[in-house]
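Hi R.,

Here's the chain you asked about this morning:
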Amino acid sequence: MKINKRKLQIAMANACLNMDDLAALAEISRVSISKYLSGLRTPKPKTLGKIAKALKVPVENLIDMESEV
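And here is the predicted structure, written out as tokens:
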């Protein structure tokens, strides 16, 4: 699953979270969040679930649906 960087940024803004906050809530490294936002890395499904849970949004709100078809 490819994360949609723009959707992730929007979800972070809606939750009033920066990368450090999100990393702490999702229990993943800030470096990983940075790589997802820059497109250098794609999160594993479990990690994507942690991010969505921390942001209190469905996973579908964070992935690039167009690239999945």
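One quick note: The radius of gyration is 11 Å.

Cheers,
M.
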